[in-house]
Amino acid sequence: MYNRYQKISQIECSCIEDLFNFHLDVQNIEKVSHPSLNTKVLNPQIQTKQGEVLHLQTRRFYISMVWEMEIALIEKPYKIVNIATKSPFHYWRHSHIFQEKDYGIEMIDQVEFIPPFGMVGKFLEPIIAKELDKMFEHRHQATIELLKTV
Fold first, then answer.
1. Looking at residue 148, what is its pLDDT?
2. CA torsion sign, 45 to 49 to 52 to 56?
């Protein structure tokens, strides 16, 4: 059974395509990632298209981890889905969803995951939820700030 996490924010930008294209640009991953993760894109030359694999390195508490994220789905300008083919998690699926609303554009991050370490990982779920809150709150605020300059 998957755990689910969701973060929703209202985004002020000129059009939904601007927000979508912002998320397609892998250079922005480092800009919106929480500083405590020390995220680096290992293949910044990647063409962001369905089927490509993005390689990320995170470093936390002096522990380095490489994530391989397959771009599983692109539905321009509404959705980008990444599935981890290599990560600390048993399963990780991250959907970036963009919706036009009467009041502006809504950005939704949805994550489905299975914690690492099997049954022991069940005890980590509250800690993981807290870390996801911190990470996505930062990502959304950084996205809002960066889009103000676009």
1. 83
2. positive
Q: Does domain 3-148 have CATH number 3.30.530.20?
A: yes
Tens digits of residue pLDDT in 44-64: 999 899 999 999 999 988 889
CB 123 within 8 A of CB 106: no
The answer to which of 30-39, 47-56, 76-85, 120-129 has the lowest mean pLDDT is: 120-129
- For residues 10 and 32, give the distance between their C-alpha atoms in angstroms, rounded to a whole number: 16
Query: How far apart are alpha carbons 120 and 115 in whole angstroms?
Result: 9
Alpha carbons 141 and 127: distance in angstroms, whole number:
21
- Who contacts 53 (Cβ-Cβ below 8 Å, separation ≥6)? 46, 68, 69, 70, 71, 85
| Domain residue limits, the chain | 3-148
